[in-house]
Design a protein that fits this description.
Layout (H helix, E strand, L loop, with lengths): L2 H20 L3 H21 L10 H15 L20 H4 L12 H21 L8 H33 L3 H41 L29 H19 L9
Helix pairs in contact: 1-2, 1-3, 5-8, 6-7, 7-8
Length: about 270
């Protein structure tokens, strides 16, 4: 069993599955689906107990992580250029900490979304900035618009957590009732706003995944490796990843968040 070949196949399958979910080109989707079938068949040859109809690629990657590490000769156990930093979580679920949005925040969805925003800002957004990802004019404008929406979402979260904490410490019954209604309304609006922002990110990233697959130039440096400046950036998870890989990773994060929250969009006509 070749550990390197299995890892490459798993990586390619993850990327191709994203293309199938995001591409609007039916011909491309059919071509990629054929490639997926071929790569899955090869994985079954290398891993006899692999059953693609019962096990996702992510599940396979987690199951095989220990085995693949053991298969590598000691002399070659050097981190690949795109390997995560030591101690970095490996699955998307592991990347999202179980933290409260504020000390008295008990809504699991609000807490989950707040955690996603936190790691998105710390670990993923830096890779998308102009310091690391060079884009054409149109994509640069779209990126700036996304940042504006993200900043608004952060402000909405701040307003919500202030209301949550004020409600927790309020004593007068009539004031508590008023704050309770405000808290519930703000929570609903915050979750729907977050859902729409995550969907906007997914559309933006998915478009560029498809564009890179076609060999386009909206992202001008897809194969450059990301090196974060430790003096100004706290990010580390995408260190040494290529820009292309960072886009895929970012897409997977927001896609997971959308599915986890599981809300319809508030946008008109959507």
């Amino acid at each position: 069993m070749s550990a390197d070949e299995i890892e490459k196949l798993i990586k390619f399958l993850k990327q191709m599955e994203i293309i199938v979910r995001t591409s609007s080109n039916a011909t491309q989707v059919e071509r990629v689906k054929k490639d997926i079938g071929r790569y899955r068949a090869r994985l079954k040859e290398l891993i006899p107990d692999y059953r693609p109809e019962k096990e996702t690629v992510d599940q396979l990657a987690r199951r095989m992580s220990g085995t693949l590490a053991a298969e590598r000769p000691a002399a070659t156990t050097v981190s690949s250029p795109s390997a995560p930093e030591a101690g970095a979580p490996t699955s998307i679920a592991e990347r999202i900490p179980e933290e409260r949005a504020s000390p008295h925040s008990t809504d699991p969805d609000v807490n989950f979304v707040a955690s996603v925003i936190k790691i998105l800002l710390r670990e993923y957004w830096p890779a998308l900035t102009e310091q690391h990802m060079r884009m054409d004019f149109t994509s640069t404008q779209e990126r700036q618009a996304l940042r504006f929406k993200l900043d608004n979402l952060v402000r909405s979260l701040k307003t919500l957590t202030e209301t949550i904490e004020e409600y927790a410490t309020a004593e007068k019954p009539d004031f508590r009732e008023q704050l309770f209604k405000m808290k519930n309304k703000q929570s609903r609006l915050f979750l729907f706003e977050a859902n729409d922002v995550f969907r906007d990110f997914k559309a933006f990233l998915g478009k560029h995944i498809e564009e890179m697959q076609r060999g386009g130039s909206a992202i001008k440096n897809p194969d450059d490796r990301i090196r974060f400046d430790r003096n100004y950036e706290d990010a580390s998870w995408l260190e040494n990843h290529t820009v292309r890989e960072a886009v895929y990773e970012f897409f997977n994060l927001v896609d997971f968040a959308i599915k986890k929250v599981n809300l319809p969009t508030l946008k008109q006509g959507s």
